[in-house]
């Protein structure tokens, strides 16, 4: 059985490839730039771009299961190619935003649209819906490495950030085992702690006390606007957001952090139910990523 992993250079896809290879599966991996793919020996590497569904015709030939990273443009076309190729099951990297209170949130809209396209396709599916990635903290690395205080949006907001390895393990189970078709897995990390506590855990892992600047209100808005500046044009081009969405994206994010100041979130136990072991903690993530925070 051949399994195709898209987004194989990404935080999650890279781990899915590794886990499948360890399990002895026949793995094919795609990237828009296959030369950038650093995969274990034996993995069949192909170029494919979701924005050009025809590039999947070759990549999907003979494939039975598909791990799909998507973006809005092109998903319908890729699903048609998958059906024609005889793919039996799609495991989608979606988002917990798709299950959220705010279906108009741009991330929710994007992932709900791709989930709906998969449901309409008639292919068997599993939707993996993670909450915030622990890997988002990698954006702090440049400050930590320079020894500068880390600017954190709402440092005292609580997150139950999930280790990318747990997302990949749940996805790999859905690819390799029966019984996961039709499941929507809402998955989070093993604990809900503040971002300031997360930074302290990174500090403990690398043996340094780390300072931060707590950005709230208009300072948070300004910082966020600067961060999404260039990326916003890319999101508009790939169809992820509309041109008029910039300020609503910022306000949605601010609201999300302000609500998260109230206290720890309830921890979801789905990772434990699927894998038979608890989700990793942020301290484990920080240990695994020490090298990313040191020169
Ligand atoms: N960050 C969070 O807190 C969070 C939470 C929930 C869900 N998510 C979802 O998780 C996904 C991001 O996952 P990640 O962190 O593993 O990814 P990532 O590290 O950001 O990497 C993005 C991956 O997407 C691939 N990609 C981008 N555009 C593509 C295209 N046009 N065609 C084919 N592949 C393309 C890239 O492949 P190449 O560049 O090699 O082609 C790369 O492997 C998003 O859907 C996001 O909404 C994120």
UniProtKB/TrEMBL annotation:
Q: Which InterPro entries match?
A: Ergot_Alk_Oxidoreductase, NAD(P)-bd_dom, NAD(P)-bd_dom_sf
Location of the NAD(P)-binding domain? 7-171
The record's PANTHER family line, in alphabetical order, gives: PRESTALK A DIFFERENTIATION PROTEIN A, PTHR43162
Name-wise, this protein is Nucleoside-diphosphate sugar epimerase
Question: Gene3D superfamilies recorded for this chain?
Answer: NAD(P)-binding Rossmann-like Domain
* One Pfam family linked to the record: NAD_binding_10
């Amino acid at each position: 059985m051949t399994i195709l992993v898209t987004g194989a250079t990404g935080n999650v896809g890279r781990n899915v490839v590794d886990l499948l290879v360890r399990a002895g599966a026949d793995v094919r991996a795609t990237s828009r730039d296959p030369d950038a793919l650093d995969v274990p020996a034996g993995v069949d590497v192909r170029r494919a771009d979701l924005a050009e569904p025809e590039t999947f015709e070759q990549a999907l030939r003979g494939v039975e299961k598909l791990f799909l990273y998507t973006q809005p443009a092109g998903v319908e076309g890729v699903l048609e190619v998958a059906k024609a190729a005889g793919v039996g099951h799609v495991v989608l990297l979606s988002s917990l935003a798709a299950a959220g209170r705010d279906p108009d949130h741009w991330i929710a809209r994007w992932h709900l649209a791709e989930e709906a396209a998969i449901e309409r396709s008639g292919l068997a599916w599993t939707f993996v819906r993670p909450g915030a990635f622990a890997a988002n903290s990698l954006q702090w690395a440049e400050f930590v490495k320079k020894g500068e205080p880390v600017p954190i949006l709402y440092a005292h907001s609580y997150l139950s950030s999930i280790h990318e390895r747990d997302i990949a393990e749940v996805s790999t189970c859905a690819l390799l085992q029966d019984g996961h078709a039709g499941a929507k897995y809402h998955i989070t990390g093993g604990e809900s702690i503040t971002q300031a506590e997360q930074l302290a855990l990174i500090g403990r892992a690398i043996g340094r006390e780390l300072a931060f600047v707590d950005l709230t209100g208009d300072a948070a808005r300004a910082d966020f606007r600067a961060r999404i500046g260039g990326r916003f044009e890319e999101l508009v081009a790939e169809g992820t957001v509309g041109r008029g969405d910039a300020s609503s994206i910022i306000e949605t994010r601010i609201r999300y952090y302000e609500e998260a100041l109230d206290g720890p979130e309830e921890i979801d136990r789905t990772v434990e139910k699927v894998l038979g072991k608890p989700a990793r903690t942020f301290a484990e993530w920080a240990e695994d990523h020490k090298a990313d925070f040191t020169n």
